[in-house]
Amino acid sequence: MNIGICGSHRTxxxxxxxxxxxxxxxxxxKTNTSGVFAEHGxxxxxxxxxxxxxxxxxxxxxxxxxxxxxxxxxxxxxxxPIDFMAYTLAEIQGDTxxxxxxxxxxxxxxxxxxxxxxxxLIIVQPAIPLxxxxxxxxxxxxxxxxxxxxxxxxxxxxxxHCTSILIPRQTLSIEERIDLVG
Length: 182
What we know:
single chain, alpha/beta, Rossmann fold, 5-stranded parallel beta sheet, 5 strands, about 50% helix, globular
């Protein structure tokens, strides 16, 4: 069974994934979204126009697929196609110029990849104290809440076929979070 941790940046996804991997004795597969941004000369803490966002998200999902494809046994990872879709959709504002056919194609690809690689998704909501780190996405609580809403909606979408578990906001300790995952 492959498990994906979903959620906004700075919610403890990587820490939780590593802890679950240790407890369940499955492999932790770390994604490198920030590295993909850096390879393309972009900073994840800076706003992007929609065309640039969609382009980098294609690179992000391809890099993740390469990592996930290499796994022959059960694993857990700290990001999923649900996250990738949420970040893409979060860039759309009232005046954003969007090629909806390209957007729909990307979303369908993400749902397909999610179904192909994951059996269970764990949604981690913004709750832990925020700590600034160089090269990481901006510490903007409103943006994180926007992403959280998008992620929950995408996990409930009829095109999404994985079981999902929502970790309540008040569940802050790593031990309690692991217990909820089962």
